[in-house]
Amino acid sequence: MFFATAAFFIVLGGLFSTPMAQAQETSGLANNAGLDNLAGQVYLPETDIRVFIFRLINIALSFLGIILLGLIIYGGWLWMTSEGDPGKIEKAKAIFKNAAIGLVIILSSFGIVNFILKALWGGEGGGGTRPGTAYDVGVGALGDGIIESHYPARGQIDVPRNTMIIITFKEVLDPKTVCGAANCDGKTVLKTENISIFSTANGAESREDADDAKVAAKIISAKVESKDNKTFVFRPDKFLGNQNQEQWYGVRLFGGKLKKSNGDAVKLGVADYYQWKFQVSTRLDLTPPQVSSIFPQPDNEADVKIIAGNAKQASWTITVIKTPNYFTPSTLTV
């Protein structure tokens, strides 16, 4: 059971180490201690400490898996060579039992810790990003969070320049926190301090996005329309990108500023924001919508007018032509 216990504490140690590293990186304070100038001379690694810890955990679990396999082989060999010796058979059974318990502990520990790590990296709801992602984009808000869907999709490319941006929430929002009015009728203006559409250098999530989302020169103004205050359509005032080269854009939602219809603040994960990016192409989408199917099917036959006469009362006569035979019970005389 030593290897199983060791696995649990190794993975548990990674759990507590990772949030500390994350808190240190997102504190906003310089923590390089002037080492940037020395990195090239002493070959300092650039790997995120969280990624390093996760890799270390995987290596340790792989090593413990090899030990488990060795124990199972040893137990099988011990049983086969026991020659009916009850002591050796019981020892082999104990090895199999301990190996099975150790396997359950290892898999359970890894699964639980991996789930918690994803939740901490990606916000609430277990959405999360995989280990190795350099930046928390709050994707836990999607899925079982408050955001049901959005268009364009995360990382989508070749998006037309004249695209609209659509976000659907699972709950009704206060439209005043989205468009500044009681009714987002398509003429109201997006509140960019709450939802920011901005141009960015590339599709990778980076810490500079938080600043780009607040730079007036990069923010895109748009009109907002919503029929139910759950699905919001954002129409940029100008075509996105240009005709010469593709351009990446980001959309960032600030949870602390968006409100539900009941006045409660919208929660978007641990970092309390949600962000995704998409790439705009150099073309405009000028193809009109095409109808693929309709229901019910059209009736192109000429209608036929039927003239019906007035209804008449039915009448008839019943004639009895024969007297019916009645049932007569038989009698028995003794």
TrEMBL record:
Q: Which residues cross the membrane?
A: 52-79, 100-121
- Keywords in UniProt for this one? Membrane, Signal, Transmembrane, Transmembrane helix
The positions making up the signal sequence are 1-23
> Which intervals of the chain form a coiled coil?
none
Is Transmembrane helix a UniProt keyword of this protein? yes
- For the keyword Transmembrane, the answer is yes
Q: What Pfam families is this protein classified in?
A: T4SS_pilin
- By what name is this protein known? SbsA Ig-like domain-containing protein
Source organism: Candidatus Falkowbacteria bacterium CG10_big_fil_rev_8_21_14_0_10_43_11
